[in-house]
Amino acid sequence: MLTVQKFGGSSVADAGRIRRVADIIAETKAAGSDVVAVLSAAGDTTDELADRAAEISKFPPHRELDALLSTGELQSVALMSMQLERLGVPALSLSGRQAGIITDENHGNAKILNIKTKRIKDELARGKVVVVAGFQGIDCSDNITTLGRGGSDTTAVALAAALKADKCEIYSDVDGIYTADPRLVTGAKKLSEIDYTDMLNLARGGSQVMHSRAVEIAMKYNMEVRMLSSFVKTEGTYMRRLVRRPELCGITRDKAENKISLVGEAADINCLSVAAALLKESGIFPISAEAREGVCSLTTEDRFVLPALQLLHKHFFD
To answer: Model pTM greater than 0.85?
Structure first.
């Protein structure tokens, strides 16, 4: 049995949270599974490193910026390995390079091309928990690269596929996938499962629970992924291929574009018309609207985005 577990920045933000995550990893190991843990940089570390670079240069070389940003994850994995060893769990931290993650040369938004799994497999065979730095790899010239926003999700799912893991678990500060962001929308409901296609549309529509590239990899390799919370024990949400998708599974927002998107098989031109009419009745006039397979989206003024999100969720999901 092999389990790949990914823990986001909020999950490893301080020593107390690192200890909590180490307990989760140790419990998984004690239950009889080998474990590969993928970690993000703690809290706002990546943003802080980017700010430091900006103090030196408004336009830092992309290669050097990737080298700098990659150090955030290296701190996380080293500290986690220390804590696991303290618990009596043999552990080893690996950078993206040491883990064999090969990418293209697109600094700041690199794509994984291949994963050489020998080092990881060797360490697992020695009984160790392997703690891998997410968000990073190396290109064919041995330069450090980073994978862009949400890159640790991509690292975890790609490793799970390459290692043919039995389980892939993504831990964050939210205990699964909801019909809307529960921090923004009152009454958002947690889903027990979600299809790859719907999750991909939610991710592309602005949901930050899982990065779109990670969903694409999971879909390609039919890798079931379970999304869980680092802070509370729940069943979470399973992402997998569903025989029957729900008519509507969620609503999300793209903060950068002030766009709201309804996602599901019934998210079509008719759904779009109903949504637009509801907003107009409430004095919210969409600037633009569009529908494509499984998604209908409306754009509005910034000040109306959250009220529109609440209104549409109440109508379609209550």
So the answer is: yes
